[in-house]
Amino acid sequence: MMGTSATGKGGIATVVAVLQREGFFERNGGRYVVTHLQGSPVQKIGTAMNAVFQLLGVRLRGARPCVHVHSASRASFFRKSALLWVARVLGCKTVFHLHGAEFRQFATVESGPLVSRWIRHTLRRSSAVVTLSESWARFLREFAPGANVVVIPNSVQLPAVTVRPDVAPNILFLGRAEQRKGIFDLLRAVRDLVAVIPEVKLVIGGDGDLDAVVRAAEELGIRQHVEIAGWMGGEEKARRLEEAMVFCLPSHDEGLPMAMLEAMAAGLPVVVTPVGGIPEAIVHGDNGMLVPPGQPAELAAVLGEVLRNKELRNRLGARARQTIETRFGTAVVLDQLSHLYDELARK
């Protein structure tokens, strides 16, 4: 399996970290090879070349591994598609695992005829294409007819069962703070909320254009209600999830966001948008709340309802955790991935 470092930022890194913690590679006779990490251009090139050399070394020793890559869009796709080409030349079976929420834009709008042809070729020649939701699977099947597309959602670990404490009206946002993730819609929603819940606070855990976020908060007159916590992981993320009253990710496009799944696993009510694979995980009013993207006034109204209604929060949080346990827990999802490997081994 190949992809970005598990110590890095983003959904792929989080997914890989879960696989490592759960002993997935040991149980399946696998090895994880880092193809990308944060650093200088020289370090990035060296990391990518090292991945190729590791694959060549394994093949020269007589093994014929299945090569499974985790990919987003643009540069990530070009790196991973090149690795898959090398793997196929060496006679290996290949799995292309798509995570990028912007892949549709990349494949259909940004790419010219030659790149589009290469994308289709990569998808069709892969032994399997793994996507996170049925909606993404439909798009890939239409875009690259004949591709063997399999739906396997992201998995998330369930923290120990705890009773959520009474907390301040904190809204937690986890992810890259940018327009695509709806952060500026959320800031406008917080401005509206301040009028009815004066103690409300938005905690932003993530990277991105944080200076632009600060400027927007100042222009809206809510700077004192916004905490820029920066990228967080591990114990700090768990603590922030426990201290929050509601999780909000008002994205304009998504795959199946790990941050949302982690919040659900923690028993936190979530307010999100019906984009990408989210509507396949969230039923409005049952295990979360759905708000159309780009509607800050409606977002404020729904957030206000959740923040003021403890019974609603408890019910949404309990059902959210139940959803993770039955559909997105590590045991369930990693069994699906192991089953895919078994099927490929028989072909």
From TrEMBL:
Residues 66-156 form the Glycosyltransferase subfamily 4-like N-terminal domain. Residues 166-322 form the Glycosyl transferase family domain. This is Glycosyltransferase family 1 protein. It comes from Pseudoduganella albidiflava. The lineage of its organism: Bacteria, Pseudomonadati, Pseudomonadota, Betaproteobacteria, Burkholderiales.
